[in-house]
Amino acid sequence: MNYLFLDTSYIVALELSDDQNHVVTLEHWRSLDKRNLCLVTSSYVFDEVVTFLSSRGFRSKATEVGKRLLTSKSIKFIQVDEDLFLEGWEYFQKYQDKSYSLTDCLSFVIMNQLKINLALTYDQHSVQAGFGRLP
Prior knowledge:
56% of the residues lie in helices and 16% in strands. By secondary structure, the chain is of the alpha/beta class.
């Protein structure tokens, strides 16, 4: 099984046709072998996605995407509990010289815990933190 971390920027690019990365993301998404793929994401990424879409006037799209993320059989949804939150907070504090968001830090902790090396993202922070990114 191939595990990939699913990040906010990839989801947004996939869902919004006017996103600068939409065409590349759509082509990449179609090329993925989904039979042998498990996507992992977190409740904080979920929050970023629905907040981003809703705040830009796409409330129904936010609801639609949120429902798909929560019900997809190919997505392992990690609920950030208190222990994970505190680990992410430690990571955030450790890298004061970086511009990582707390969501980035939580994603990196999850990726380290699950030994995931690649993220579906356009965020350079993943590369800066030592992970690969697609596309």
